[in-house]
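Hi R.,

Here's the input for the NAP complex you asked about:
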Amino acid sequence: MRYAVLGTGVVGRTIAGKLDSLGHEAVIGTRDPQATLARAEPDAYGNPPYSRWQAGHPQVRLATFAEAAAHGEVVVNTTAGVSSLQALRSAGASNLAGKLVIDIANPLDASQGMPPSLDPVNTDSLGEQIQRAFPDAKVVKTLNTMNAQIMVDPARVPGEHTVFVSGDDTEAKGAVSELLVSFGWPATAIIDLGDITTARGAEMLLPIWLRLYGALGHTDFNFHIQGGHHSA
Ligand code: NAP
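And here is the predicted structure with NAP in place:
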């Protein structure tokens, strides 16, 4: 399958690397490929520059947001949440139309200091904003409630733990569940929360996630909904 992974941060790299290792054709999208490759400093989170990761993954191509989205049969949004709408507009509505758009981003706003706050929140969500802005896309929110490494390697956290999916299109959510299983998630770990408005709850887990990170001092943890099976 051809995937566009929009975003060059640790999430985009991790998802694209996993898709590539599973035999998919992943193209990563960025604002300006030359500028991204030319960066020599670690990013704001201390991750090595993109070019270092790219050197180890020569088969994953770097392109503009629009070129990547045109390539993808499926588009994955791993851009900074406050800029995701802008990034997706650069990708182009026509390159998203009719496609599954997997949204992993969190709308974290650090402009007022740390810890960041959510914008939108409570009565809206980034997942919904994306679905409203691109009504012809099939937006599914998932994987945003855990660290990037766990997304593609759930066994990093012992025992069963939970991944949520939210979206209006049942078939699209089915395709995402299959992808999650291919990433190593047991089908029983996946909870379909409902339509895209349920992304509000998944995004609103971020304040507690950030505080857990502060309290525990590491990121190898995840939420587990005990008894989280669907009733018959
Ligand atoms: P990030 O630093 O949050 O985002 C990097 C990406 O955002 C880059 O591709 C960058 O474009 C793009 N971007 C930044 N400002 C932009 C703008 N003004 N217009 C267009 N694009 C812009 O990277 P990350 O840490 O990998 O996180 C990605 C997303 O996943 C975030 O929404 C985050 O909240 C969410 N998330 C992260 C984790 C984690 O473990 N880090 C876990 C769960 C969810 P360029 O490539 O052009 O620089």
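One thing worth noting: The mean pLDDT is 97.

Cheers,
M.
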